[in-house]
Amino acid sequence: MNAKKLLALFMSLVLLLGALSVPALAADGGETAAPEATGAPAEDAQAAIQEKYAQIEARLDAAGKKYDGSAVVATVNGREVTWTLCYYLIAGLTSQFINYTMAIPDFTTDVGDGTTLQDALRETLEARMKYYTVPLTEAEARGLTETVDAEVEKQWQNVAEQYGGVDALMEAIESAYLDEPTYRALLSSNAAFNAIMENSYGLNGEKLSDEDVLAWANDNNYLRCKHILFLTENADGTNMTDEEKAEIRKEAEAALKELRALESDREALLTRFDELMADADDPGMTTFPDGYTFTSGQMVQEFEDGTRALGDYGLSDIVESSYGCHIILRLPLDPEGKTLSQDSGTGDYMTLRADAANELFNAMLLDWIDTAEVEWQGEFGTMDYNELFAASETDAAPGDGFNENVQKDAAFYRTLGRILPYLLIAVVIAIIVTVLTRKKDAKKPEAPAEETGAEPAAGEAPAEAEKSEPETAEPAAEEAPAEAETETKKEEDE
User: Fold this and answer.
1) Would the pLDDT of 14 be above 60?
2) Exposed/middle/buried for 79, CB within 10 Å: 0-12, 13-18, 19+?
């Protein structure tokens, strides 16, 4: 398992790691282009939109140059944050709104309870600054600086090779409002996470004892079981008739009766259970021949309840779910057993040991973020973002270059713009609360419904992935270099 997988829970707070996305605008007619339904000639509408975005991009560029890039804007636990990093994060957040609304947002917008969009952005900005600086401080305290530096140099060389040389790489970095020292610092954060993970737990949890793994699993309500499934669904997904279901249940009852007769002989019970399981209807047992290891909410409730009611090696009665009839055999937890969590890099299912290391590392990370102190310098902590992005006197008026139909499109986007900030900030707040309270289901892997009869809980959202920031239509004109071999993209944002 790659250690980068271990950051998945917190990737909602990151703009970079999988790839450094330029805060670029969808000026090339992506999903934000004017709808054809307005009747405006496509060429005129496209030209007007490009003109609009050119004006906005000029304001973004000008804002980034208002301060010297090396100016210290804040410290996080004493570590300096420069204007270059700060503005990279500000511009990235702001561009998310621009791609929806065709305008730099009004940061005085009230997003509820007297909180302005500016307040919410600054809170998010502080969380991101902590994320990029705290691991570097921790790695230094553990004596891991040489390890981090070596990994950064390796990644730098890899990315430069991908871009065809350092000159091309530098061009990409600068187009993303970054410079080489800041980009290297971002690479260092990623390398520091890996180094700390290995130092603390081992990349796959090798430094955790079996007792530690099992204690963590029990504290987090993990279960392990095998089951024999008698499907009551047809191949096309429709339900069988009541008569067909009754016949299926009779088959299940006959198998259960046979197994009950073997309960006094554990070896015989396990052997016969495996034989019946091999002939049953759950293809997921091909992937999990040693049983499913799962926690609350990852299986349908009837299946979870039926398993939880048993002791080790206990045999259930017939358990009915939307899939059919199950006979469940609960098993002791195995530190090396596969869970339903998947490595984001390889797609392989992780062991319980690796899963425990993942979550323990995430908890440690979130504690660092929660307790880190941000101290703003000078005016940066009270900066007015409307003033930062204020148009110059030479900027064209908002409607310049738009014909009547394009103006209608702009009105549509302005309406959208009044609504989306509220929706987006709701996402921000939800993600921050979820992450900082370490809600386990912020990243909860699910057993693939098509693969296993012990289906995931109905109605669960896909793993957040993780998820967080609405995906913007960013056919970016330019892209900052992707971090070499980084597999932790989680989809960012608050």
Assistant:
1) no
2) middle
Contacts 24+ apart (CB under 8 A), 304-310: 304/223, 307/223, 307/225, 308/223, 310/225
Place of tokens 């986007």: 413
**Contact criterion met (CB below 8 Å) for 27 and 367:** no
Q: Are 386 and 108 in contact (CB under 8 A)?
A: yes
Say what the pTM is. Answer: 0.68
Supply 127's token pair.
Answer: 């969380």
Angle at 297 between CA 240 and CA 252, to 5 degrees: 35
pLDDT, position 131: 93
Distance CA 13, CA 491 (A): 8
Contacts of 157 (CB under 8 A, 6+ apart): none
Mean pLDDT of the chain: 77
Looking at residue 397, the DSSP 8-state letter turns out to be: P
DSSP per position, 30-48: STTSPPGGG---HHHHHHH
First to last CA, the chain: 26
Beta-bridge mates of residue 224: 293
DSSP class of 309: T
Structure token digits, residue 44: 């005129």
Question: Cα 423 vs. chain centroid, distance in angstroms?
Answer: 18
Phi then psi dihedrals of residue 223, to 5 deg: -135, 160
Tell me the CA distances in angstroms from 135 to 57, 219, 400, one per residue in order.
Answer: 32, 27, 47
- Specify the length of the chain in residues: 494
Q: How distant, in Å, are the alpha carbons of 38, 94, 360, 485 from that of 201?
A: 59, 37, 9, 22
Spell out where 165-311 has E strands: 223-231, 292-294
Residue tagged 């809170």 (tokens): 123
Q: What is the rounded distance in angstroms from the CA atom of residue 334 to the CA atom of residue 353?
A: 9
Q: How far is CA 384 from CA 63, 108, 220, 379, 380, in A?
A: 12, 9, 44, 9, 9
